Amino acid sequence: MIDIKLLRDNPDIFYKSAKARGSDTSTIDRFFELDGEWRENLRSVNDLKHQKNIFTAKISDAIKAGNGVDELKDQVRQLNLEIEKLESRQKIIETDRDVVAKLIPNLLSESAPVCKGDENNVVVRNWGLARVMEEDVEYYKSSTANMGQYSVIDRRPESHVDLMQRLNLADLDRAGKTAGARFFYIKNRLVKLELALMNYAVDYLSERGFTVVEPPYMLNYRSMDGATDMETFKDTLYKIEGEDLYLISTSEHPIASMLMDETLDERELPVRIAGISPCFRREAGAHGKDTKGIFRVHQFTKIEQFVFCHPDQSWEFLEEILGNAENLFKNLRIPYRVVNVCSGELGNLAAKKYDIEAWFPSQGKFREVVSASNDTDYQARSLGIKFRTKDGNRFVHTLNSTAIATTRVMVAIMENFQRDDGNGFEIPEVLVPYTGFDFVSS
RNA sequence: GCGGGGAUGGCCCAGCGGUACGGCGGCAGCCUGCUAAGCUGUUUCUCGAAUGAGAGCGAGGGUUCGAAUCCCUCUCCCCGCGCCA
User: Mean pLDDT, chain A, as a whole number?
Assistant: First the structure.
């Protein structure tokens, strides 16, 4: 949530930020209406309560002095009726105001590009030697601002769907029978590859100051609402029937809410957490996109980076966690580009977001594999995560970034490292100590 | 699931119908050659330009002029018992 006091004092910057995101600024108008009413009503309530407190103190004194109190009691009863009336009104106004306030997006970073549509994301840099079909070269060049290195290939690599089928690495049809579309059974060396990726990412991050955490895979409403923005997020979440529980869509959320309502000592910052968990997503509204294979699925495993830090350091940490994610992909030798995501595509929480998009030669496209965001104090405020300073308590800043989403990285490996003779694919060297094998073939 | 005991400010803890005691830690100041000790104040949220006011004792209700305190419902933690990968 945004800082209400800051909004009252500087409405302009919030209007500007919301406009740049293409979000509806009438919510801000509505906020000011309700907030004005709220403040006015609060003053009345507090005045009445003040009077009441004076009377109850008088009653206390009168009893001690042995005097009668019946008349005073009647006056308090009268006040109570008025207070009750105003307070129930206050509750309604406050609920309405807070609903509206939660819809106001975070202040945009100066360095986030003002634009709309993922196709307009700004290319920051690219890395690696991509294998590109002749017919995809133009697209590749423009997608890398003409900076990308590539070698032309004359045979399109097999799609991961066909490859998995042929090499007996997955059973998608039976998953359709037992669970439905966008589920999978992966098998044999693909399972080992996934475990290797998980272990590799966990080792990499724990060597860099991250505490590794396996969180709860379900959260209650309060935690989920604090960590995300339920209003726009509920379509992606699975709800447990009859319980106040939601399946997590990323370990970001249980990790963020882990410190909910806590006030940390300044010396405890920064807190670096690496989360590992399955992620459950309904993918409602993704009909027709990536319908086959394991690229877009209802359940996948992700290793996530999360940082709680001092507000002065969050921009450095955004570069740090993006750097970590990039290094993982460099070490895996997967070609990628980094984009600075358009203001219109950031969601409400992020002040700025980088995506890493890996090159998928069989698709001839860059596709998102990592998303790294600085949520500044927006998420921390909703969750009540603060730290003490000598000038009072302040909200921490929170950042999150994918390290490895196993399914997409497995697809990237299967599609980028196919052998020229068409017989299977190589395992990136850095994973071999974890897999115990360096190729997968029929 | 069944008993029993708990949840109080950053932490520890008292209070168990009259409006949150005390300690530790943090911060500010005083005091001493310096440090330590000691002393004083402060420490959460909200409204207010401010003197100030209101709220807050796990959450939500109730009783009362007045609830941390009594009653009801719920959540979580601890100790037994049961069940269990």
Answer: 94
Q: Which of residues 52-111 of A touch strand B (CB under 7 A)?
A: 52-53, 55-57, 59-60, 63, 69, 72-73, 76-77, 80
What pTM does this model have? 0.94
- Structural tokens at position A342: 């358009």
Say which residues have a Cβ less than 8 Å from residue A213's Cβ, sequence separation at least 6.
A251, A255, A258, A273, A274, A275, A276
Nucleotide with smallest C1' distance to residue A64 CA: B18
CATH number of the A118-440 domain: 3.30.930.10
Return the percentage of chain A with pLDDT > 70, whole number: 100
As for the ipTM of the complex, it is 0.89
Reported CATH class of domain A4-103: mainly alpha
What pLDDT sits at residue A442? 83
Domain boundaries, chain A: 4-103, 118-440
Sheet of strand A299-309: strand arrangement: A122-127, A336-340, A352-360, A365-374, A397-405, A299-309, A271-280, A211-213
As a rounded value in angstroms, the CA-to-C1' distance for A202 and B9 is 38
Q: CA–CA separation, A358 vs A338, rounded Å?
A: 9
Amino acid at A69: V
